[in-house]
Design brief:
387 residues; mainly alpha; Cyclin/Ssn8; cyclin
Length: 387
């Protein structure tokens, strides 16, 4: 697969993966498409600058909207906003996919499968075209690339009426199942039965790629008042007067029922208020006693809180003393260890000195014996002269 086609396929797969998790109403499709192409160019080792991607998408948008193609000035505020939005959307893409952007396309399997099955060249081109069209659907996120490749090969073989081995089934050699192949063929057939695709703006942001300002939803329409309704009814035709009068009568009956229900509710509320007042009158007599008991309770609770705080302070002091004693003991232990190490070092030094003195004595004895031996040999040579 050549690099531009690989970038196209990878961008479409990233697009489908992103919208499997996010809503079309939240993220603008055109801006996400531009970010997918930009990210795919990096993944397929053919990177392009953000300026190039924005200029191409700006021209496509102008042609789609039948607008004059204007040059996108890189120093304008529009370009700066579009570039910032492109980078921000790419960051959203990477975050939603967990920075796992590896994509495996069915195209690389198609060539191997058809070479193994020894099919004609026309069938290979048809299978390649079907693989490109499959990226317009969600097959790339529903099935593995091997299954999509087998489904594409099967659909192309049926179109050209090329028989494939059934015994044993050919798809088992390529790690696929019949149900997945049938689903791929069904989705492709449904795709070709659809009319030409049209863009429907569903995002809350601006529909045009060239604009980067957010257009908020329009507020809800206010409910018309009675005056407007009266004006409308005055302008109505006499033929509709009967229908409107019947509707008004029905509404009047409903209003009477609602008023009766409201009167009953008011009466029940009044009775409840009277009973509450009676209860409150009996309770008001008991208020002084309750106040005294509440004061006593608050005093006792305050004393308890103070006692708890004192106990906590005592515990803290005890913990401090314990830590101090532990530190003191640790210091003593460290001093003892240092003393032991010093004594061991002194002993080792004394031993080394003893060994050195012994070695020196042995060396001196050896030198004495060797010197005496040499003097004897000289004396012998002096007394015994050779003719």
């Amino acid at each position: 697969m050549v690099r531009p086609q690989a970038v196209m396929a990878t961008g479409q797969v990233l697009f489908h993966r992103f919208y499997c998790k996010k809503s079309f109403a939240r993220f603008n499709v055109k801006r996400v498409a531009a970010s997918c192409v930009w990210l795919a160019s990096k993944l397929e080792e053919s990177p392009r600058k953000a300026r190039q991607v924005l200029i191409v998408f700006h021209r496509m948008e102008c042609r789609r909207e039948n607008l004059p193609v204007e040059h996108l000035d890189t120093s304008s505020k529009k370009y700066v906003d579009l570039k910032a939005d492109l980078i921000r959307t790419e960051r959203h893409l990477l975050k939603e996919m967990g920075f796992i952007c590896h994509v495996e396309h069915p195209h690389k399997f198609i060539s191997n499968y058809l070479a193994t099955l020894e099919t004609p060249q026309e069938l290979r081109q048809e299978a390649w075209n079907l693989a490109n069209d499959s990226l317009r659907t969600t097959l790339c996120v529903r099935f593995k690339s091997e299954v999509v490749a087998c489904g594409v090969v099967y659909a192309a073989a049926r179109r050209f009426q090329v028989p494939l081995p059934e015994n044993p089934p050919w798809w088992k050699a390529f790690d696929a199942d019949k149900s997945g192949i049938d689903e791929v063929c069904r989705v492709l057939a449904h795709l070709y039965s659809l009319p030409k695709a049209q863009y429907v703006p569903v995002c809350k942001e601006g529909g045009s790629f060239a604009t980067s300002y957010r257009s908020w939803d329009s507020p809800h329409q206010s409910i018309p008042k009675d005056g407007s309704l009266a004006g409308q009814s005055a302008n109505e035709d006499p033929s509709t007067a009967k229908g409107s009068s019947s509707l008004l009568n029905q509404e009047a009956g409903k209003d009477e029922l609602i008023k009766a229900a409201l009167d009953k509710l008011k009466e029940s509320k009044n009775s409840d208020d009277e009973s509450k007042n009676a209860i409150n009158g009996g309770e008001s007599r008991e208020e002084p006693d309750s106040k005294l008991t509440s004061d006593n309770k608050t005093e006792t609770s305050g004393e308890r809180i103070k006692e708890r705080e004192r106990d906590r302070e005592r515990e803290r002091d005890r913990e401090k003393e314990r830590t101090r004693s532990r530190d003191h003991e640790r210091g003593r232990e460290s001093d003892r260890e240092r003393g032991r190490e010093d004594t061991e070092r002194d002993r080792d030094k004394v031993k080394e000195r003893g060994h050195r003195s012994r070695d020196k004595g042995k060396d001196s004895d050896r030198g004495y014996h060797s010197s005496s031996y040499s003097s004897r040999e000289k004396d012998r040579r002096k007394h015994h002269s050779y003719a």
